[in-house]
Amino acid sequence: MKFFIVAIFCVLAADVLALVNPEKVYLVVNDNDPDSMSIAQTYCRLRDVPMENILVFSMPSSGFVSRKTYFEQVESPIIRKLIKKGAIKAIDTESKDAFGREIFIPSEINVDFLILCKGVPWQLVRSQQSPSGKKYSMQNTDAASVDSELSACFIPQKNFDFACKNPLFKNYKNDGLFKAAQILRVARLDGVSKSEIISALRRTVDAERNGLRGRVYIDQSKYSPLGDKWLEKVKLLMSEQYFDVSENPDRALFSYSERFDGVAVYFGWYTYGAYGYFKEKNMSFADGAIGWHIYSFSASQMRNPVFWSPTFVRLGAGATVGNVHEPFLSMTHHADLFIEALLDGKTAGEAAYASIPVLSWQNVFFGDPMYRPFLVSLEEQVESLEKGKFDKYSQYVVVRQMNKLMKTSSRSEAEAFAKRFIGNLPDDAILFKFFEMRLKDGNLPDALKYANMIFERDISEDASRISIFMGTACLLSFRKGEAAVLGMKFCERLLDADMDSDFGRHIAASARRISQINPGILPSERMKNLFEKVDRQIAEEKAAAEKRAAEKKASEKKSNKS
Predict the structure, then answer these.
(1) Which residues, in sequence order, are bridge partners of residue 114?
(2) Distance of alpha carbon 273 from alpha carbon 331, whole angstroms
(3) CA distance 505 to 534
């Protein structure tokens, strides 16, 4: 026992300053998926992982496998190859447990992360009953993600009808604990298409090089106090880092009437699938964005773009999580702990394991496990700006520094700093900051000055930038006089935006509001045509809803008679 304690202490001491070592990262490829190898090779090049760390297997091409298939064609081949590579030292007992899992007794794990690439199955489907004849249910199920089951493959379990505790939960200060606890940490590079996965990877590496830049968005749902508590803590943590934070208190997602630009951090819940800005073809998050939408089955269909996890990958997220089956809220990733670990300097992969209370369960971490979004400090980002190095996300550094100066120095110093960059780099977010501040001050003339400057900018086809135009139009639509006139100009210009039809409803709503408050401000013929189109759509939807309700009532009446 004394030797065991000393051994663990030595492991922890040796790894206190350790991060994820690329030499100890291994990638799993399914040679039945044509994209799998390409994704693995791209990751190796981006992160200096040896190409010989790519492990190739012939696995089922479906994302769903039975527990028997999982043990025989996924878990056992992976463990055996890692042992052969020397990445794991273990005794092969040449026996299986009652469920069919091969039993290995590990003595040393030298795998910092195992990355499953597109093509590797992601879900173990629920069995009808256990080998002893016990029937499974939604609450007591052996369904699990492949990733989480692999993580717990060396943890002795009497059955699989529930999760097992994760020793790494809340333990992000102990970098070497995963070795002592014999946890195989797993990440996944997956999504609808290879191009989306690789694009997200490249943008994530860029984000680490420049530091995470953008805004924070919190979609509160008021669905359960526990989830809302997590999101409140995220809001507080990011505000303390001087990020701009937008919070939506409604159960619906952020609407088209609100700005949704530069999404660097997003957390929300509890909506079935993505819609609104999330579904726009020209929408993307900021480079290396982090976060997720809490939903029970967010990762159950990785080839369906309606589901949340593939949506986040498509939008360019560098780190996100999902669930393949009902996880129950308390046994999902805790958003606040994830952010705390990242702010402490941990990688996204380490943060993912420090924020999940259970293993052998439904959870999946998507993205680059080596990613450190806060590696570059705000001070270093500002220094880069001062040297004339900037891109479209640099404006968010300016806004963040403004926030810092307003809290630590003075508003006048903050504004003087930001004004130096107006017109010298992409500045929509800076202008909106001034516009919104002046409105709150009650200084309408100055607010309109900044709104006019926004109007002069190129609206482009970028949904993120279009959202700033829409947010400006919406705020102006509640005003009278000159502000309302400018608001109508914004609405008319937004008619050219290549966006989903629902976006048009919000343009129409703002334009109608302006005309109602200001009868002298008349909409153009194009805008009137939009009004008519929206009215028709609403009438058709109402008629369809009434028809469904009538059919349901008739069906229930018929059923009651029988």
Answers:
(1) 26, 186
(2) 20
(3) 6
Parallel, antiparallel, or unpaired: how do β-strands 64-65 and 88-96 relate?
unpaired
- Whether the CB-CB separation of 187 and 115 falls below 8 Å is answered with yes
Q: Is 239 helix (H, G, I), strand (E, B) or coil?
A: helix
Q: Are strands 113-117 and 25-30 parallel, antiparallel or unpaired?
A: parallel
Nearest to 490 by CA among 464, 524, 517: 524
| Residue range 166-205, pLDDT digits in tens | 999 999 888 789 999 999 999 999 999 999 999 999 999 9
Q: What is the end-to-end Cα distance of the chain in Å, rounded? A: 70
Amino acid at 61: S
Is the Cα dihedral 551, 552, 555, 560 positive or negative? negative
Q: What is the 3-state secondary structure (H, E, C) of 360-396?
A: CCCEEEEECCCCCCCCCCHHHHHHHHHCCCCCCCHHH
From the list 139, 75, 147, the residue with the least C-alpha distance to 296 is 139
CA 9 remoteness from chain centre: 35
Nearest by Cα to 48 from 24, 67, 16: 24
Residue 55 and residue 28: Cα distance in Å, rounded? 5
DSSP 321: E
Which of the four pLDDT bands, split at 50, 70 and 90, describes residue 505?
A: very high
| CA neighbor of 263 nearest in space, from 274, 271, 272, 273 | 274
Residue type, 454: I
Exposure of 155 in the CB half-sphere (CA atoms within 13 A): 25
Rg of the chain over Cα atoms, rounded to whole angstroms, equals 26
Sheet arrangement for strand 263-268: 54-57, 25-30, 113-117, 186-189, 363-367, 319-323, 290-293, 263-268, 215-219, 245-248
Of 52-56, 89-93, 133-137, 414-418, the range with the lowest mean pLDDT is 133-137
DSSP readout, 438-481?
HHHHT-HHHHHHHHHHHHHS---S-HHHHHHHHHHHHHHTT--T
Whether residue 489 contacts residue 455, with contact meaning beta carbons closer than 8 Å, is answered with yes
Does this model's pTM top 0.85? My answer is yes
Please give the Cα distance from 94 to 85 (Å, whole number). 19
- Yes or no: say if 38 and 194 are a contact pair by the CB < 8 Å rule: yes
34-37 contacts at long range (C-beta below 8 A, 24 or more positions apart): 35/117, 35/118, 35/119, 35/193, 35/194, 35/197, 36/117, 36/118, 36/119, 36/120, 37/117
Q: CA 467, CA 482: separation in Å to the nearest integer?
A: 22
Contact 257, 509 (CB under 8 A): yes
Report the length, in residues, of the chain.
562
SS3 for 233? helix
Q: Tokens 């002592």 belong to which residue?
A: 180
Q: Which residue bears the tokens 């052969």? A: 84
Percent of the chain past pLDDT 90, that is, above it, reads 83
CA–CA gap between residue 429 and residue 445 (Å, rounded): 19
Angstrom distance (rounded) from CA 309 to CA 273 = 10
Contact, 265 vs 290, CB < 8 A? yes
